[in-house]
Amino acid sequence: MNHQCTRTIRGLFLSAGLLGSLIWANPVSAFVQEITAMFRPDPSNPNQDRFTNTTPVTGFCATYPGYCINVFSIRLPITAASSGALPAKPSDPRQSALWRVPAQWRQLSVIDSSGEEATVEVRINAIGSRYVLDRSAAELVGGGVSALQAHGMLWGGNWLYPPSPCKGIGLASYGSYYFSFVWRTPEEANCVKLAQYEIPKMAYEYLEIGYELRTPNPLAMSAGTYTGVLNYGIGPNQDFDLGDMMLPSDSALTLNFTLTVEHILKVELPPGGNRVELLPEGGWQAWLNRGRQPARLFRDQTFRIAASGRFKMNLECSLAIGNTCGLRNGAGDEVPLKVAVSLPFGLNDQYGQTVNKLPLRLDGVGTELFQAVHYVNNRPGTLHFEVEREQVGDMLKQPGTTYSGVVTVVWDSEV
Asked: Among 25, 159, 369, 401, which one has the highest count of C-beta atoms within 10 angstroms of its own C-beta?
């Protein structure tokens, strides 16, 4: 092949090798592309509660990230070749260079090993490639012009400027035999470039797509790995439609989605917080000074919690009395102990309500689901322990004795 001159439009260059020959393979295969995303709570950025796309970025977003805010690109090794000559000024646009891509949002389900399901949405918002001719564009238009002028004459305007409704983003490069381009695809409609001269052979060297994702709320998902598949057809009148003349090397594109959710559930008590002493309001001395029975014995024990997902709380007791724990003295006298929990803002109950002195019960009713509205990082909560007035009266009938018991509070992420 003759020596090629290369030019850059608007100072931007998309690098790729020039095809030495035009090769057509029958469209009998599907190309599989992995799409991965991860949610992992970041204590340094607790307000970040969305998935991060971890799919390697290739193509124009890798080279020019400034064009790709919330957009990702992938260069796919999918080629296409003309099945015959592209006619000059055809009456049927499908006989020329046509592009139509799945620009509308499409949904797929991702499912983890337990069967929990979530919805992902994806749309293709940009398309790019490099067309390669079997001879120079200048030769096709009769010669006597520059390569850039020839590409413009060949199509009635070069491919830096796409046909409506596609939009240009200012990325293109060219040589005597090729032209690289990227177009925005704001809607699912045909974008057609009509050849103004007959083109004996033409190929697309690769397929480049820009895509957007709508991922589910990871805070509402259990920790785990979620997978799903989205299939696109490639070819005439398929999801990726290249017209009737340009036949693709692959008849389908399969996007394999893997979403990984990692959650934090961490609870810390202050030093000595595992030993709880119940006292009357103001302490025993205040009660002795007043000479009246305390209304209650209680202790509010603070803890700190970091949580990004769902969890439940359970109560376990060394002595069970009814649906709660109990305390016992050396003589075997027993009194029930009420246990409750208050959680920091951002952690709600199963009905979406804030959690304030919610009773903890042995049967678990009422505390079987808590949900993080946002990532809560190292915020204070409270465990409330209380013996009520009637039982305090019973205890005071046994002066000089100590009532004790073991209460275990469980925070469980396996909901």
From this structure: 159
